[in-house]
Structure formats: structure tokens, C-alpha cells
Amino acid sequence: MPVRVAGKAIRDLEYLHSKVILSDLFDGNSPKIYKDLERTLEASEKYLNDNDTVIFASATLKRILVIIQESKKPLPGQYWNPIILHIRRIWDYTADRVCHDSVDTFALLLELHLRQCVDCLDRPATDSHANCDWINEITQWLLEPTSLCRSRFRCITHLVVQCPTLRLNLGEDFFHRTYPLLSNPTFSSVIFQLIVDNIFDRDELWDYHCEMLLTSIDAKLIKSRLIPMIQKYHPSNTASTSKQKQQKPLESDTGVKFLNQLLIQLNSPSSQSDLQSRLEIVHALVVTTWPKKKMKDNEPANLIDFSNWTQCITDDTMSAAIVHVNTDVRLAAFKLVVENPRKTIAFNETDIEYIKTFLASNMTIQSPSSRQQLIAAYKFMCQRMGASAEVPMKTVMPTELDSDSFSPDSSSFESRGLSKWRFGKDANLHPIPESYIALARWMAKLAFESLSPKANYYRRIMALMQIDTLFTKENFITDGKNLFADKLNLDSTLGSDRHKLVLDCLDDSYDLVQTIALSLLKRLDFGNIKMNEEKYLNDAVELMTSTRSRNATSAGFRMQYYLARQPERYAACFERFMDDLKKRTEAAEIDLLSVTTLPVHSILNMIELLLRNPSGLEEDSTEFYRNQCLDKLLPICHKIVSIVSPVVHSLSPEGCIPDEMLRTMCGKSTDRMAELSQHLLVCCWRAHKHVSGIFSWVVETLAPKEIVTKEEIEAIGTFYWTQLTECKHRGAFESATEGFSQLCTFLWNTTIEGLPKPMEWLDEILSAIRGEKDLTNLCSTRRSAGLPHLVLSIVATEPKTNENEALTKATDSLLNMEGKAAEYRVHSMNVMKTMIQSSTLHERAVYCYGRTLRVAIDACRADWSERNAASQLFAALRTKIFGVMRSAQRTLSVDPKNRKSNYEFFSKFPSLYKFLYDQLQMEQSEFSLLPPLVVLSHLYTPSSSSDLYPLGSFIKPLLVIALRDKRENIRAHAVAAILAISDVYAKEDLCRWVGQFEFKNARQNHIHSFLLLLEGLGGYVEYVGRIVFIVENILASLEFKKWCDFNINQLLIIANSYGLEYDVDEITVDQVCLSKRPLAVKILGDRDAFKSEMCRMLRNVDTRREVYRTIYKQGWDSCNKFLRAHIINIAIKDLSSPDIQQCDAKRIMEILTYVTDEFMSKENAQKMVEVVEKRLEDPENNWTLPSTMAYATKLKYGNYLYPDYELITWIRESYELDDPETKQIALDVGGRFIYRVPSKRSYTDQEKDLIAAVALYLQDESDFIRQRTSCYLGHLVRNSGDCEINPEICRLLIIKWCLNDGNENLERFSTDKKRRVEDRDDLFDACAVNQFEEYQLFGDIPMYEVSIGFNGYNQEMYDIEY
């Protein structure tokens, strides 16, 4: 890599990085190359804080060693140790290239040493202790766990590669320290290299490695890291041909033998790996290609065969996995069955049964990622079917009657397990492709049946994706082999019935379903389908009379399909919709409320759709566009805008009815008028949105053809200008933004004379924002509405040839606050915020971040409106400069990934260094001081920091703020900034300062900052002992009793975090409030349970409330087990109090539900039930939350042996609630009774009611609840083995065998509720609807029964003595 930046101290050594003359460098008694080497080592040590010098020095040292190596000259021993010290200094440097150079330097140094060291050259080949002293020292240094960095492990790898005998030093002790680091992505790759090298060298450690791999790391790492490395390390892959011949067969099979041992341990009964991990590992073995060796006759080609899953796991394991309750496990099993790089391996009968079982029971996968994985495996399966059927299809089938080579009774046919697929329809067709054809047609049938209107969204989208894959012929063709694809001919199975199923999907409520269905209708050949065109068009028009947006969308998809079949009808349909639009517009002009009964937006949506998809127009359609679009459509659109603008531009976000219309609506109820106003607003803004879309299409499509007049473009520009400067409806001005961006793009690049220029618009709007030009209608909302989008559209579409002229002009004007009124300063900052947030301008706008940050901080001193805009601008800048937060930030400690070093930050924004320092010195408000503190908390001082922008100078003013400021949040932010920017030396000074702090005479604000520093410094291991000593002294002195409650709370939190002892009774309960929370934690965890029982703190209701909260958050493990009975007793007493609040009652009941019988006495249990029952029967009960009632019900029925009708009804009603917590409790209550119901032939009516109530949860929207329900019900349908089965399978078998007594007729379990829901014509769709629930039974029950080994009965089901 070329060195672009030379070090400041050794800049003259840059010549070494180009071609050099070796004689010039090595001539003389004192060669120049060694002097350069000394200067480089000296510079790297002296200027360690200068990034440029360190980067250049590391690259230069590496280059010097390369030159010495190429010259074959020796490296004097006096330089060996200085180079090692250099490596140790920089191998964990902040710049990655320096770390890489350090490792390369070590490898070069080691090679030079081994080439010239006499002791190393004379060492025995097998003695690991015969190396020279220098090598032994290096080995000891590297193997000691003194440094935890990636480069250290890479150096170890180079050491054992060049000194193979040192591998004996890498034993169990070394790997015991190393394996825990594999979970860190930084180390996983380099550590796996050491592990793989050790595996190939030391087979006596295989048992240890297998155990550690299976118990200490994630199986995904074995799949993604270990197995590929072993495959690449395999001698037959890495060694040359000559070396392969010299290797022994056993040595070349080392990797395969180790993986076989790993597999044996994985499948052993004592294995701790879960089922998914086993499947993941086996999948990695199967999909990895292990090269075969040419052996002598009668010898196997490979020691172990990983070519198929059957070689790696048992059928019982696969049978359990394919119907497992967990979706990820089932998906892993399916991928293991179908994915194999050896595509010519045919599927056998067992594979096909597993495929069918999986596909039939997993059509409703919810997770989009899992759905994509399934479709990818589905496509791979199709490719494998085509590839593996190619050879059998070329086989000529015998025709003699006496030939049995391929008869159903022959061993060759039976050995593949395909005898059941022999139908006799084609005597010359091999059974393998014949079985594949049957499977493909079965899959097509399954997919089309899943398109039923009563199926849920997940089933329909999965079915459409499978149809799209299955009916793509190319998916069955591999390497140009298409015999099977031609023979399959799935298109012949398409017909009118399947056409109707796909056609009905155009009316679906999900856009993705409609889109895929439309593409299938256009692509697939359903045969000669006759359509009633008049009825089809009338249905589409009927849908457009509805105000529901989904109906208008459905009409659009229907029309796209119709025009795809009849493209010649495009112009006629367009004219028809234009006539309808004109009529509705005229009606709306007379009576605005008519847009709620004959909506305009649905017609506009249809017209926009037709314009963007001109399927039936000729290439030269200028006349059509001129007559129909420009002459007729544009005037109507402008008229619609004038009609709906009063409503869209209104200030009310909840709806608007013009004043002149209110006079005619006297007598209507308020609710009716509110509903009507919302209806009117929605219809008006949707019409407004589609007009914006039509104008955008005109600019994008017609304007470049130069058929749009200047006046028409100006009218469109005026429309967008008005919406972006005056409109206050968010949806309206956001929809106008896209069209305006298209218009600006066209105007920037057009050569047509006389058109308005975006730069002129920019000057006009900037003049208005400066207050120089009067725009009385300029939007005055908090976020300036569409104004920021207007400026952004102009600037973002500026061509590169302008060299950011518009951007520079805009930022200069917006950031210049001199002479602007407060209103215009707010507009300026809102526009800048939008420009900062724009991803389009990210790189182009970086130059103004520093100035913008200064403007935002200065504006925080102003009034509320300006300060609000400034805070929004500052937040946008923080995100752009420091990156998006990876997780929610719940403390003031910033994630390391969102922090920058002092040099990195201030080298980009040098003016901010003095600016931020000055801000800390000024007397200012809380709002203006907070942003500088936040910025500083995002910075840090690296160990190799540059002296150019030191952060140490900020610590003193920050400490002054932390001690003197009266505002708590400012003090907290100041301490957070101090801890963030402090280096090792500053932290040491801070630790000494807190040790000398006079807390006895300090003010409360000083004590608060002191405690925050204690807590922050305690986060560093090296200071924990000193912090604990300081806290112990404070607790022993009892001086904290004089402190305020806020500081006592902070102190006790620190004390509890270190497990320090203190007397709870020393604190007066009446004087504290916040401190009761850490006191509650201390009471529960105190080892002296008797003392805690007698503690007077527990007499206080607020303290007890904190006790219950602690148990609720941390569980009963947070409580001393000898204290639990006492806590349970007082909790029941508090629950019986008539004045208890509902939230407290809920928390008490929740913690009581998790109490075990060991700590709950019978008396307390009886008393608890009596209290709950009394409360539930109280007519004045104030418990209204469903979850509170759920916990009460769970406690009430805790000791019941059988459920009553009231409980079963409550379980059913809880399923209908949109409250996951209540559902979970109701399921657990019902599941506890279900466990007591044995598996039998028939059930009582009460048992059926209970099973039916719990089985409802098998269709819950939450995958977790469905899986838990299957765990409760599984034992009723699975006779043996794991009872946790796929909820889809469990539901069908429960319905048949438990609710229908084994009868095959299940029609009564299907309903038409889905159709009744879809027939509504509400303005808005219901938001609380279970989208997973289905109203028809899907699946193959006999196949499911076979897959789980259920035959409907066993001996235990009958009360018969044998």
C-alpha cells in the first residue's frame, strides 16, 4: 500500500517507499539502511502521540525489513529487541493499518532471525525447547496473558508457523484462557486460526477442543468460522501436488477425522448442545465440499462421508426437528434436508416426506427473514430436483416384462425408497423424476390452496412466493440441463380455478400480496380464460366509489391486469375515467361534502396509475398526451386543488369543515360532525396527494419531450411553491416534495429558454427567510412545515457542474443570524436541520457542520421557540457527526462506537476547540450549557493521543461546573464529560482528588458531584479498591446522615453495587424518599434475616412498595431465603388493605404467583386466596386493568383441581384482548389444568371446553404464545417423545382427536367471520385485529399424524384390562 502521509519527524525517509538501489543502502562500514532503521525506531517512540508519524514509522520499518530480506543481508542482533519494543508499543494502536504493520514487522523479524541465528539453525527438528534464548523469551512474552489485542494472537500464529515445534506450548491452559474470547468478533477469526492449527498438529487435544467448542461458543461460529477454516486448511486443498504425494493418508484426513469426532460428541446422549445447534453444525458439514482422494482398489475414497445428512444424524433426530415447536429449528432441519452442494444426489422417500411435512405446516411463518430463508431453500430444492433427475432421465428404461432391474420390486428401485411413487403412467419414466413430478405438483396444489380468502396474510404471501419460484422454469435448470424442466410442465396444471385464486389476491389488504399476484397473472399462462369485461370494469369502478384506500388500490391493480390482457383498451379506459373525474369534480365544486360519497382521490389514483403504466400506448403518443393529459387533465387537477385547499391548508390536524358548510349542518351531533370532518379531511388530502403525483409524472415524463408549455410548467411550479410554503398538512407537503424535486431536477438541466430557474426560487425563499421579502402566508408552524423541503429540493438536485454554488449560498444565508427576527431564525434552523439530516447532502454539507453547531449552541440562549429549533438542529448534528445510537442510551455514558478521539473530531472542526472551551467559561443558562457538555461526553483521549488538541485543559472548567452549578442534570453531564475525556493520568489525578475530598464539611452540590465521580471511577477495575475504601470510610463515619435524600440515595446505590455493609436503622425513614429504593435492596439482601424482619423500615408503606418493586424486577433470588416467608406475610397483609392502589396490588399479586410451596405456608396460601376472592366479589372493586384481574384470577385458581365455567369463559375472553400480559397469564392458568388432562380416546364436555379455550391461543399473533400453547397441549396428541410440536400441527390434531373425537369431518370448525370483517366499508381499517387468525383449517392431518408417530390411540387411552 502506498504511503500517502509522511511522518513529520522522518519525512526525508519517504524515498524508501519507492525503488531503491541496494548498493547505496548497504555500502560502507556504517550502512545507511541501519541508520534509517535507528531513526525510525527513535521517531516511533518519541512521537508516539502524533498519528502521522506513527503511521509513517510503522510502514517505514516494515519496508526496511523487506529491503534487508530481499538483499539477503543479516540484521544485526542489536536491533532485535528495539524492534520488539516498537511492536509492543503499536500493535494495539487506534489505526488498523498500524496494527497490521506491526504483525507484518514481527513476521519479517522472525524470518530474518531464523535465517541467521546459529542456535536456531542447529536445533533438532522435534525438540520444542532447543530454540535460542531470544526465541524462548519471545514465546514466553506472547503466551503470557498480559495484553489482550488481536495483533498478539496473529503474532502467535506467525511464531508457531515458522517454529512448528512451539505448537507444543499451546496446551489446555492457553486455550482455556482463549476460548472465552471467541464471542468477541474482534478475536474470533485469529483465535480460530490457532485452534485449527492446533487441531492439525495435536490430536491428543481433540477431546478437549470438541468439549470446548460444543459448550463454550455459539454453533453459528462453528458453522461460519471453524469448519470453513478446517476445509481450507485441509492438506489436499493447501499443499502442492508434490507434497500431497509425500503425505500419509492418515495425515491428509486429519480435518475430516476431527470433525467426525466432533460429530460423535455432538450426537452423544451427554451432549449439552441444543437441537438447533446440532442441525447448524451438521448443515455446515454437509454444505462444505470435502475433496476425495484417489485410493487403491477396494479402499474408500474418504475416511468419513459428510455428503448427506443421513450420514451425520439419525432419523429420530430429524423427525423431531422437522415438527419442532421452534420455527428456527424447523427451518434448520428443512435446509439440512434440501441444501447440498452435490446437487446430483437424489431425494429419497424419507426426504420427500420430510419436505412435504415441513412445507404443509410452515406456510404461516411470520418473520420476513425466516420467510426469505425458506424461499431460498425452496429454490435450491428445485435446482437440486432438476440436477438429480438429469441422469435418470437419460437412462433408457427396459421394456421387457421379465426385466426387473427397474421394476417396483427390484432392489435398485427399493433401495432409493421410491417405490411408493411408482404410478405406472409412463412406463419409460424413471421413478426418480416421476417422484419429483408428483412432488412438484403436490407443492403447486398446496400453494394454490393456501390462497384461500380465509387464509391469513402470512400464508398467502408464502404461497405466492412459492408459486413464483415453482413456476419459474429456470429454477429447475442447472448448468443448461433442462430435461426435467421440460418434462415437468407445471403450466399444464393451471386453469380457471387457480386463475381465480390469484385474481382474488388483487383485492388483498396488503400491497405486497397484490404486487406479487399481479406479476404472476401477467407472467403465467392460465390458458384461455374468459372474462366478463363489463362486469370486471364495473367491479373496479364500484371499488372506486369507496373511501377506503385499500379499495382504491385494489381497483388500480385490477385495472393493470385488465390492460395487460387488453392493451388496446387503454385509451378508452382512460377517457372513461376522465369523464368520471370531471363529473365528480363538478359535484364537489357545488357541494364539497360530495367528495366523501363520490371520492375524487380514487379516480385520481387510477389515472395516475394508468399514466405511470402506459401498457397500451404507441411509442409516438404525443397527441394523446397533449389532448388527454395536458389540455383536459391539468385544468381539472388545478380545479381540484382549488376545491380541496381550504380543507388541506387548515390548522386543525383532526379535520375541518368550512364555515359556510357548518350553517347547513345544524342539528347534527358533535360526534357525527367530528367523524364527518375527519372523513372530509382524509378525502381532500388524498386527492391533493394524487394531484401532486400527476404533476410529478408530467414533469418527469412529458417535460423532457418538450410538449409542455412554459405556462403549464409555471403553473405546476406555483402549485408546489404554494404547498411547500403555506400548507400545514404533513402528508400534503411531503407528497409535494417528490414532485418538486423532479421539477427542480428538470429545470436545473433543461436548455429550454424562458423557464424559471431554481436558483431564482432559492434567492426568493432565502430573501423571505431573512425577512427582506414579505411572504405573509409563510408557514408558521414549529417545524416550518414544507419550507425545509423546498430549500432541500433545490439544493439537493443542483448539478455537479455548479460546484455547490446553491448549497454554499443557502448555508451562508441560513447560518447568518444577524438582523433576523426570531421567527426567521427559527425557519433558518429548521431548514438547516433538514439539510443536515439529508443523506443526499451528507458528504457535501460536512464543511458547515462546525459553524452550524456554533449557531445551534448560541441559539439555546433564546426563548422557547428558538431554543426548541436549536435543540432539534443540535440533535441532528450529533447523529450525523457521531453516528446513530446502536441501542437505547439509558445513562450518560456514551457507547464507544459513537465516540470520536480528540484529534479525529477537532481536526475536522478546528474552530470548535476554542469555542467549546469558551462556552464552559461563560455564565449561561442550563439550555446553552448542556450542548457543549454533550459534545464533550462523545469525545475521548486515546492512549496515543496527539498533542495538537489536548482535552486535559477542559477538565478544570468542567470540574468547576460540576461543583458549583445548582442544576442536577448539568452537574451529571459535567461529570460524564470529565470521565469521557480523561486519559489514564487524568483519571489518576481524579482518583487522588476524591480520596482527599472533605465530605464532612462540603456542600450538598459538591457531595453530589463527588459521588458521581466515585461511581464513574468505580467502572474502571484499577480504581475499584480505592473507591471501595472511600465509600467504606463514609459509611463508617455516619456523616451521610446529614446529607440530603438525593445524595444518600446515590451513596447507598454505590454501596449496594459493591456489597458493602451498613446499618439500615441508622437512616431515619421520615427524612428520606429516594433512598428507600436502595434501602429496600439492602433489606432483602442482608445476610441477617432476623434483623431485616425487625427493621423499622418495613413498617413504612413506601419502603414496602420498594421491596415489592425490587422483587418484581430482580425476582425472589434478590431476597434472603430466610426472609421470604416474612415478606410473603406482609405482602398478603398489604394486599388485603382496602386502600391499596391497583398498581401496588398488581405488583404484589405478580410476585406472589412466582412463590414456591417451600416458602408459602398453607395458612398464607389460604389467606391469600380469601383476600383475592373477597376483592373480586366486592362490587366496589377498583381493579379495572385486565392484567390486574388476570393475576387475581391466577391466584384464585391456584389450588383448584378442576376449572369451572367462569374460568373457561375468562380464558376465552382474554384471548380477544389486545394485552399480551393478560393473554400470557390466562394461558398459564389454562395450561396448568391442561397438564392434568391425560391423553385418551374421548374427553368430557368440560375437558373439551377447557381444551378448546386453550387451543384458541394456537392462533395468537405472538409466536411465543403459540409455542407455549403447543407445549401445554402437545402431550394430548403425541404419545411419546418430545411433546413440543409445531403449533400448526398441534392445532389440527387437537381439533380432530380432542374436540371432534377423531372424526374426519371438520367443517364445523371453519367460519365466515373473515368475510364479514372484510366486507366493512369504514374509512380506517381496524388497528387491533389478529392478523394471524385463520377461519379455515389448512393442512394434511394424516401426514401430520405419521410425522409425529401418532396413530390416534394407544393402550393408555382405553380403560380395558389386558
Description:
HEAT repeats lie at residues 955-990. Belongs to the THADA family. Keywords: tRNA processing. This is tRNA (32-2'-O)-methyltransferase regulator THADA. This protein is mainly α and 1362 residues long. Among the domains are: 1-169; 177-313; 314-398 and 406-493, no CATH class; 1063-1199; 1203-1362, no CATH class. The chain is 60% helix and 0% strand. A two-stranded parallel sheet has the order 1-2. Residues 1-6, 235-252, 399-425 and 1353-1362 have low confidence and may be disordered.
Compose a concise summary of this entry.
The protein is built from 66 helices and 2 strands.
Count of helical stretches: 66
How is the main sheet built?
Answer: 2 strands, parallel
| Unreliable stretches covering 5 or more consecutive residues | 1-6, 235-252, 399-425, 1353-1362
Task: State the assembly state of the protein chains.
Answer: single chain
What is the count of β-strands? 2
Q: Level of helix content?
A: 55-70%
Q: How much strand?
A: under 5%
Keywords: tRNA processing
Family: Belongs to the THADA family.
Organism: Caenorhabditis remanei (Caenorhabditis vulgaris)
Protein name: tRNA (32-2'-O)-methyltransferase regulator THADA
List the helices and strands and how they pair.
Layout: H1 22-26, H2 32-46, H3 51-71, H4 80-90, H5 96-116, H6 118-121, H7 133-143, H8 150-162, H9 172-178, H10 185-201, H11 206-216, H12 219-233, H13 235-238, H14 241-246, H15 249-252, H16 254-267, H17 275-287, H18 315-322, H19 327-338, H20 349-361, H21 368-388, H22 390-394, H23 411-415, H24 431-449, H25 457-470, H26 483-488, H27 496-504, H28 511-523, H29 533-543, H30 549-565, H31 570-590, H32 601-612, H33 622-648, H34 659-662, H35 670-702, H36 710-726, H37 730-749, H38 758-769, H39 787-796, H40 805-815, H41 822-837, H42 849-859, H43 864-882, E1 900-901, H44 902-908, H45 911-921, H46 926-937, E2 939-940, H47 955-964, H48 968-981, H49 984-995, H50 1004-1017, H51 1024-1037, H52 1045-1057, H53 1076-1085, H54 1089-1093, H55 1101-1114, H56 1124-1135, H57 1142-1153, H58 1162-1177, H59 1186-1196, H60 1205-1216, H61 1220-1234, H62 1245-1255, H63 1263-1273, H64 1287-1299, H65 1313-1318, H66 1341-1347
Parallel strand pairs: 1-2
Helix pairs in contact: 2-3, 3-5, 4-5, 5-8, 8-10, 10-12, 11-16, 12-17, 16-17, 17-19, 19-20, 19-21, 20-24, 21-25, 24-25, 25-28, 28-30, 29-30, 30-32, 31-32, 31-33, 32-35, 33-35, 35-37, 36-37, 36-39, 37-39, 38-40, 39-41, 40-41, 41-43, 42-43, 46-48, 47-48, 48-50, 49-50, 50-52, 52-53, 53-55, 55-57, ...
InterPro entries: ARM-type_fold (IPR016024), HEAT_type_2 (IPR021133), THADA-like_TPR (IPR056843), THADA-like_TPR_C (IPR056842), THADA/TRM732_DUF2428 (IPR019442), tRNA_methyltransferase_THADA (IPR051954)
GO cellular component, one term: cytosol
HEAT repeats: 955-990
